[in-house]
Amino acid sequence: MTQALNNVRSLLLGPSGSKPPDYRAVPSSPESELLGEADKPKRQDGMVYFCFWIMGAGCLLTWSALMCTFPYLVQLFPPDSTRGRNLPSTLSSFYCFGLVVFMGLAQNGVGRGSPSKRLNWSSSLLLISSILFTFPLLPLLLPHLTSTLLLLVLIAFTLLFAHATSYFQSSVLGLSSLWGSSQVLAVMSGQGGVAVLVSFAQLSLAVLAAFRPSSGEEEGKMGLVPSVGLWILTSLGAGLCLLAFRYLSRRPEYERVVELVSNREETKGDGEGILGGVLRKNALVYVAVAYTFAVTLSVFPAITTTITSTHHPTPRLLQPDVFIPLHFLIFNLGDYIGRTYLPLIPSILITSHPRILILALSRTLFIPLFLACNTSTTIPLINSDILYFLIALTCGLSNGYIGSMCMIVATTPSLNPRISEEEKDFAGTLGAFFLVGGLALGSVASFGVKGLVG
């Protein structure tokens, strides 16, 4: 913990008398000039793009599955349990703060040698922990634990997921930044894509379960079968991450990246000075990406999982066990579109750091909008399921769009001349650190926001 805090402190403190960064916007130019020939996606790189997409998906694989399992896990606690009611916020906080601490520790390895070892062990840990959570933990152990022990086991596995994910994500974003901006976009797209796949699988299983004969007591609750099915898919996805990296490690481009890192070690030595310089150059973009995800996590899923349909009586397919997975899918579809496609539109690709920050700050509006919907303890000001889903879709679109744009601008010298070619992987891993920092702040803020609805 102390080492991680020292790493963060060393990033924030630059040498005395250092020149302040220039935050002027990059002049407008045609898309081909902005992206640069080396950064354009190439047809023959389709498999490389797909592999980075898979590894990007792996960065949020366990988190997406865990979030979608919250409704079932809450049901394992007594109905009047405060621990159960606060479970989404509790696990979100432990996961996100675990990411921050472990990501701070992971900064020690940035730019030092081949990423093969770190990617191999972190992806293997993702696979093993996902399998253990799928079986025997979820179906056999968790339903029979006391509330206290149940909470402790869930926190322990949440931290295990955070540990594996932090080192995996740091390595993947560093590698993709050195490879090119198309691969950075592939990683960001994969992170959104896995959330869509997981939430679609969850919704499909919930709909199928809704048509099975059940007692009135069970109706409207999220069942065990959809949760286990979801984690089986998660385990398969973790295995694909291992295969994707092994394919990339045999590509000639990978050898070029390894050679670049080795040459830099010989000439630059310790990367701590590079990290501090990159932080000062990209400070506003990093604040923007942190704030973007902080706003999202302050309401999603802690608040959104308390919002139910406004229809009375509620149709079977709009009861909480289906309605909540449906809102996950709608948000994640928006997030995926925002991550994958909106940054490719030249007219809305913003490269001015202050403007990106202003755009991120404007997302604060989503907090009162969600609070105005049909939460379980308040009279809704927005008394419409359609309007609620539109708000969720817009929130997802803006989250993905700003998040991807921040990461691309921060790591692409042709869009951000302040960054040199040899600083790209440092810029990528720092972006990942601030992204998870925003998640951590948002998860803590969710306790305060949830207090507004009782």
TrEMBL record:
GO terms for cellular component: fungal-type vacuole membrane; plasma membrane. Its main location: membrane. One of its GO terms (molecular function) is nucleobase transmembrane transporter activity. The keyword Calcium does not apply. The chain crosses the membrane at residues 50-74, 86-106, 118-138, 144-163, 184-208, 228-248, 283-303, 356-380, 386-410, 430-449. It comes from the Eukaryota. Residues 1-37 are annotated as: Disordered. It is found in: Membrane. Keywords: Membrane, Transmembrane, Transmembrane helix, Transport. It is a multi-pass membrane protein. PANTHER family: EQUILIBRATIVE NUCLEOSIDE TRANSPORTER, EQUILIBRATIVE NUCLEOSIDE TRANSPORTER 1, ISOFORM A. Belongs to the SLC29A/ENT transporter (TC 2.A.57) family. This is Solute carrier family 29 (Equilibrative nucleoside transporter), member 1/2/3. It comes from Tremella mesenterica (Jelly fungus).
